[in-house]
TrEMBL record:
The lineage of its organism: Bacteria, Pseudomonadati, Bacteroidota, Flavobacteriia, Flavobacteriales. InterPro entries: Lipocalin-like. Residues 1-22 form the signal peptide. The keyword Signal applies. Keywords: Signal. This is Lipocalin family protein. Residues 65-124 form the Lipocalin-like domain.
Amino acid sequence: MKNKAFLLGLLSIGFFATSCSSDDNEGETIIPLQGKYNLRQTGTIVGGQEVLIDAPANQSGCPMDYLDLRLSNAAVYGDYNGSECALTESTGTYVRSHNDLTLTINGITTTSDIMNLTNKELKLKDKTTGAITVYSR
């Protein structure tokens, strides 16, 4: 069950679409990527419109699952599960190249477009599946 929730979280990351402002940095955001992000919404694009729902990977009554991107390029995915809200952390790495974010956690690699990165939000869109994932700081 925890692996299923973790994979759902990773898919959520992939589905997470964000948009960066276009300015002197050719559309690339200059906000630091490092930080802890709480999983908030997942979705996709239907008929040219984003359709987002509250993240089903978050267990009711527990803290939100999270993605912690560390300065060392370590990535930690936290999954709260069960009646005791037990925390399972899965670790891996991340690489940012311009507006692409590649995450490798538990041997699973996903590459997403960083569509929005602000002091309050990280929004990703999986390059393979089109899945959108929205995180908040």
